[in-house]
Design goal:
5 helices, about 210 residues, alpha+beta
C-alpha cells in the first residue's frame, strides 16, 4: 500500500507578489484563467462549488464555470431542485475552488449567489447540444431513481415528447447562478511549502489585497 503521508511534491515554477497582480480581483482571475487555457491544462474551467445545508452540513461538487458576467462575477448552471440548488435557496452563499496543478496554482472564491436572469439561462440552455437539453429534461437531479434503465427510459420519453423540436424549451427548474465575490485568494506553489498567497477582499466598490502566510 502506498504511504500517503510520505508523498511529496516541490512547487517551483513561478512566484507571486503583490506587485504582480492587477488591482481588480476578478480581472486577475481572468488573467490566470487565460493562462490556464493557453497552457491547455486539463479541464481549466472545472471548479469545486461548496454550499451548506440548513443544518450546517457542507457539501461540494465539481461543476464548470460558464462565464464571468461583466468581468465582475462567476456564472454556472444547474438544476434548481438539486441538492446545491436547495441549499442555495436556504443559504445563498457559496465557495468556489479552482486547481490547476500543471501551473501549481489554486484560486479560492467566496461570495453571495443569486439566480441568473431567465433570458440568460434560456439562451445558454438552447445553445447546448440537443442531447444535453434532453438530459436536463430527463434527469430529476439529486433525487433517488430505481435504476440506470429508468433514467434512459425517461430520456427516451422526452425524445418522443419533443420529436424534432430543436432547440427545446428550458425546463423551469434548470438555470444559472451568479456568484458575486466578496473574497478571492490566489495561491502559487513555492518550494519548502512557503507558498505565495495573495488575498483580495471587497470594501464597498473597491478591492483591497494583502499577503497571507502559507
Amino acid at each position: 500500500m502506498t504511504d500517503l503521508a510520505a508523498l511529496r511534491k516541490t512547487y517551483s515554477q513561478r512566484t507571486l507578489s503583490e506587485t504582480d497582480v492587477l488591482p481588480d480581483a476578478v480581472r486577475q482571475f481572468r488573467q490566470w484563467l487565460d493562462e490556464a487555457l493557453a497552457a491547455q491544462v486539463e479541464e481549466p474551467t472545472a471548479m469545486t462549488v461548496s454550499t451548506v445545508s440548513p443544518t450546517g452540513q457542507p457539501s461540494s461538487r465539481v461543476v464548470l464555470l460558464k462565464g464571468l458576467p461583466d468581468e465582475a462575477s462567476f456564472l454556472f448552471y444547474t438544476n434548481y431542485d438539486s441538492q446545491k440548488g436547495q441549499e442555495l435557496a436556504a443559504h445563498p452563499l457559496a465557495a468556489l475552488n479552482f486547481f490547476w496543478p500543471a501551473l501549481e496554482r489554486q484560486v479560492r472564491v467566496e461570495g453571495r449567489v443569486e439566480k441568473a436572469p431567465e433570458p440568460m439561462s434560456t439562451a445558454y440552455f438552447q445553445s447546448r447540444p440537443r442531447s444535453s437539453q434532453l438530459g436536463a429534461w430527463a434527469s430529476p437531479q439529486s433525487q433517488e431513481i430505481g435504476s440506470r434503465e429508468e433514467l434512459e427510459a425517461r430520456e427516451a420519453a422526452m425524445a418522443e415528447k419533443f420529436g424534432d423540436l430543436n432547440p427545446l424549451p428550458r425546463p423551469p427548474e434548470w438555470g444559472g447562478y451568479i456568484l458575486t465575490p466578496t473574497r478571492i485568494e490566489f495561491w502559487q506553489g513555492r518550494p519548502s511549502r512557503l507558498h505565495d498567497r495573495i488575498v483580495y477582499w471587497r470594501e464597498g466598490d473597491h478591492w483591497r489585497l494583502s499577503r497571507l502566510a502559507p
